[in-house]
Design goal:
This protein is of the alpha/beta class and 322 residues long. It contains ten helices and 13 strands.
Length: 322
């Protein structure tokens, strides 16, 4: 197949491109050319800036593909321009969305038919913590409006794996490797849930090759934090209660992946992937995801999301209360 990937050199896009290329497909990518590019030379590089709308997609004119995989669509301006331009040039549009589009996290597990956040206006271009979900809702609406049954919407859980420079998963892996007393959030009974980027990429391949339509949550197994810390090999965990973390105004950015069981969006860590499983999603064992990430992260130096000083202070607060 001939497949166009919008994005393709960074984390998720890179894995998707490498997976599709390894399966024998002919791949083109559209990027601005500003990021490091370690993809095989056989990949066709097209240059464009999606922030410019249709004016930034000139390189796509007079070309056609079987499938488009939209990894880099974050704003309506970006997505409407590409969706409209490619309508007569592709057979299927695969849009990478997010589970952050869901509004109601009261009931679990979270299914694909759960209510979504209110859509952002098509004129919104600022992407931040407040607009990210609503913008993706609007982008989903645009893709569905234009393509109907010819589109597939994928809503991944937090994505982890090699080439992930966000620091979310990396914090816990690198902090565990450092040793010593380590802050463990909550009491061990809360849950976390992620998706291995290679599983996401593999499902994109299944969608493309089998012409699958519809909407799919993509998530991996749920783990308790106690199980996660055991998997990390932490020898000296100090469990700091969710109440202490809240009183100290510890943010999700500082302790990524941690959502206490009674927090408003805790069921973000209880997302159903049953529909995708039936359609062919293959799940990597969490221990294998961790092992491969540990191998990759050895040569990386992402900044810790929680400083050593902040961690020590929170541990002291916990011990003082105990």
């Amino acid at each position: 197949m001939k497949i166009l990937v919008l994005g393709g050199t960074k984390f998720i896009g890179r894995h998707i491109v490498e997976t599709l290329f390894a399966a024998g497909h002919t791949i083109s990518i559209l990027t601005r050319g500003n990021s490091s590019d370690e993809l095989p030379p056989e990949i066709e590089r097209l240059r464009g800036d999606r922030d410019l709308g249709s004016a930034g997609l000139v390189a796509l004119k007079d070309c056609s593909w079987d499938v488009c995989v939209d990894v880099s669509g974050y704003t309506p301006r970006q997505v409407r321009a590409s969706a409209e331009m490619l309508l007569s040039r592709i057979k299927r549009y695969i849009f990478i969305s997010t589970v952050s589009i869901y509004q109601d996290f009261i009931e679990a597990p979270v299914l694909e038919n759960r209510p979504r956040m209110p859509a952002a206006g098509e004129d919104v271009t600022v992407v931040n913590g407040e607009t990210y979900g609503p913008l993706k809702v609007t982008c989903e609406n645009i893709v569905n409006e234009i393509y109907g049954s010819r589109c597939t919407i994928l809503r991944p859980q937090i994505v982890v794996g090699p080439y992930d420079h966000t620091g979310r998963y990396a914090y816990w892996v690198q902090r565990a490797a450092k040793g010593g007393e380590m802050l463990a959030p909550g009491d061990g009974s809360d849950h976390l849930q992620v998706i291995d980027v290679r599983d996401l990429a593999g499902f994109v391949r299944s969608v493309a090759e089998n012409n699958l339509e519809g909407t799919f949550n993509l998530a991996g197994p749920r783990l308790t934090w106690s199980d996660f810390f055991s998997m990390l090999g932490v020898q000296n965990a100090v469990w700091v209660s969710a109440d202490i973390l809240k009183s100290a105004n510890v943010t999700f950015a500082e302790l990524p992946l941690f959502l206490p069981q009674d927090s408003p969006r805790c069921n973000l860590m209880n997302v159903s992937h049953d529909r995708a499983n039936v359609a062919g999603l293959q799940i990597t064992e969490p221990k294998l995801t961790l092992r491969d990430f540990q191998t990759w992260i050895k040569n990386q130096q992402p900044a810790p999301t929680l400083s050593a000083e902040r961690e020590a202070e929170l541990i002291r607060m916990s011990k003082k209360i105990d």
